[in-house]
TrEMBL record:
Record domain DUF7344: where: 32-109
Record protein name field: DUF7344 domain-containing protein
InterPro entries: DUF7344 (IPR055768), WH-like_DNA-bd_sf (IPR036388), WH_DNA-bd_sf (IPR036390)
Origin species: Halogeometricum limi
Entries under Pfam families matching the protein: DUF7344
Length: 137
């Protein structure tokens, strides 16, 4: 199969227009590296629905998700998540051009408005939930 960079022929004209909306999108490798980690996926899921937040709100949301995953969440959980967001996950997502993170103010903002990128992020959410439901059976 030759990859000429064009969308698959099955896409409609509208789909083709949407898939050409990648001016502010990260590279394919950067996007999928970002989605390869559960915390980073969840940060992106949160930001797709609420494009501006703070690291404190993200830490609370991620700890809540961990609690709903039946993971024991102790008093250190929020601090641990906050530190991992601050030192690792948010800088990586920023370097991938998916968000901006101001360490001084704690502000976090989704920077991509690319429909294909948002579609991939939303798909990862639906896919992870489908697998969780399958595993519960």
């Amino acid at each position: 199969m030759v990859d000429d960079g064009d969308p698959p022929k099955q896409l409609t004209a509208l789909d083709t227009e949407v898939w050409n909306d990648v001016d502010d999108a990260p590279s394919t490798d950067a996007l999928f590296r970002a989605l390869a980690n559960r915390h980073r996926r969840r940060v992106l899921w949160y930001l797709v629905d609420d494009s501006e937040t703070t690291i404190a709100e993200l830490a609370d949301a991620l700890v809540g998700w961990e609690a709903s995953d039946n993971v024991i969440v102790g008093p250190e959980a929020r601090r641990r998540v906050y530190v991992s967001l601050h030192h690792h996950h948010l800088p990586m997502l920023s370097q991938a051009d998916l968000l901006t993170y101001d360490a001084d103010s704690g502000a976090v903002r989704l920077t991509t408005s690319s429909k294909p990128v948002e579609d991939v992020i939303r798909f990862s959410h639906r896919y992870e939930h489908a697998l969780a439901r399958r595993d519960e059976r």
